[in-house]
Amino acid sequence: MSLLQMEQVSHRYGSQRFLSRQTERTVLQDVTLTLEAGTCLGLLGRSGAGKSTLGRILLGLERPTAGRVLFEGQDIYRTTANDYRQDIQVVFQDSFAAVNPKMTAGQIIAEPLTNFTRLAPDALQHRLVTLIEQVGLTRADLAKYPNQFSGGQLQRICIARAIATNPKLIILDEAVSSLDMVNKALILALLGELKDKYDLSYLFITHDLQAAQALSDRFVILDQGQIVGEYPTRKAFVDATDPHVLAIKNAMLATHPRYRTIRK
C-alpha cells in the first residue's frame, strides 16, 4: 500500500462578486498520483499550474471538488480521526511568513509538540535542543526571535518544526525557492540527510529544476491542473525531451549571469 494516493482529484474555484457569480475556474483536473514511503516525489510545474492548490488539498486545508486523497489507505476527508495531521507536516517557501514574529525559535519548534504530544517540561526542552542541533543551529538559538535570523537559518527552524513529531510525510512547498544559491544547496543537503536518517517521505513542490533533481527520486509534471508527464527515475527525467519538461528547462536562468540571455 502506498503512503499517499490521490485518485482523480479535481478542484474548481468560483469568484464571487457583488450581486453576481463568475464562471468557475478549474485548477486541478483528474489528478492521480502515488507516493511510496521513504521516497521523494518531485512535483514540477510553471506558475499557475495548480501545484500549491494540490499541496493545500493534501494538507487537509482545502477539500477537493471531486476525487479522493488517501493517506495510509484512509480518506483524509472522510475519516473522523485527525491522526494524519501529526504524520503530515509542511515547509513553506516564505519562512518569515510561516512563523509568528513574537515567538522565539524554541516556541516555534515546540508548536507541533504541544499540539500532538504531552511531554514533560524537561523532556520538551531536551527535544528542542536535539531538534535545533539536528538542523545545524545551536541551543542558544532557541531563545532568539525570527528577526534575528537570516532567511536560511529561519528555514532551518521551520524544518526543525516540521520534523518535531516524527512525521511520515513532509510537503516541501517551494521550500528553497527564496534562498540564495549557497543556502539552497545547504538546505537541500540537510533535507537529504534528514530523509535518509528518519526514512522520511517528501512531496517536493517546485518550479526549480535543479533543486528537484538534487532531491527527488521520481518526477511528475503538472500543467494547467493536469499531470502531463511522469518519470520514474532521475535519469529518465534528465533525458526527457517532452515539451513540458523542455519548457521548464528553458524557463530556468543560467547559474552565472554571464550565460543568461535577454529574450526580446
Automatic annotation (TrEMBL):
<dbReference type="InterPro" id="IPR003439">
    <property type="entry name" value="ABC_transporter-like_ATP-bd"/>
</dbReference>
<feature type="domain" description="ABC transporter">
    <location>
        <begin position="4"/>
        <end position="249"/>
    </location>
</feature>
<dbReference type="InterPro" id="IPR050319">
    <property type="entry name" value="ABC_transp_ATP-bind"/>
</dbReference>
<keyword id="KW-0547">Nucleotide-binding</keyword>
<keyword id="KW-0067">ATP-binding</keyword>
<keyword id="KW-0813">Transport</keyword>
<dbReference type="InterPro" id="IPR003593">
    <property type="entry name" value="AAA+_ATPase"/>
</dbReference>
<dbReference type="GO" id="GO:0005524">
    <property type="term" value="F:ATP binding"/>
</dbReference>
<dbReference type="Pfam" id="PF00005">
    <property type="entry name" value="ABC_tran"/>
</dbReference>
<dbReference type="InterPro" id="IPR027417">
    <property type="entry name" value="P-loop_NTPase"/>
</dbReference>
<protein>
    <submittedName>
        <fullName>Nickel import ATP-binding protein NikE</fullName>
    </submittedName>
</protein>
<dbReference type="InterPro" id="IPR017871">
    <property type="entry name" value="ABC_transporter-like_CS"/>
</dbReference>
